[in-house]
Write a structure and sequence with these properties.
The chain is built from two helices and 13 strands, in the order ββαβββαββββββββ. It is mainly β and 215 residues long. Bound molecules: N-[(3-hydroxypyridin-2-yl)carbonyl]glycine and fe (iii) ion.
Length: 215
Amino acid sequence: MTARPLGIAVRPGVLHVPGYFDAGEQRALVDELREAARIAPFFTPKMPRTGKPFSVRMSNCGSLGWVSDVAGYRYQPHHPETDAPWPPIPERVLAAWGALSGYPHPPEACLVNFYAAAARMGLHQDRDEEAFDAPVVSISLGDTAVFRIGGASRSDPTTSFKLASGDALVFGGEARLAFHGIDRIVAGSSTLLADGGRINLTLRRVTPPQRAVST
Ligand code: MD6
Ligand code: FE
């Protein structure tokens, strides 16, 4: 096993690990995600209440997937359009969670976001989970993104930094409820995805472990 760099502590609770996945691992992961997307096609989420479409397209892997439509944000075990269960989280993604999260239980949800060149994501908190003691681990693939992060209040000052293909970001502790978003994608900055764009995976523990359903 290769030694992994510890990464950059952007602020307490936020660790940026540039190049967590090397080029070969990134290509293998893209192939795995392409397979997953055959089972769970990308869909266009809508804003609660207004129904305004997101610019990002989404899918999920894992026992629970994050969805958004006029009824609200939620986690559910099936795809909103096909009703099929989500495909499993790829092994190398589970391994990244094991290596980076410091959390003794596996993630339940792996949200897969696809950004075309003009897509972005407004400032938000990840707060639809019941397990805030677990961090969120994110993995970026393809074009570089400008990631913006602030504090626990929307009006707190923000800073931005770039997330490149293969980078991991661990977001927990006192930063778990920090506002964050994607300002823009740097189109053409990576050749990983044949047609360009960016994929971001966010891994989350949704339910407290003691309440997890046993099989
Ligand atoms: C993105 N990421 O990188 C969006 N959330 O496309 C997120 O919203 C995010 O990267 C929580 C923790 C890490 C993240
Ligand atoms: Fe988020």
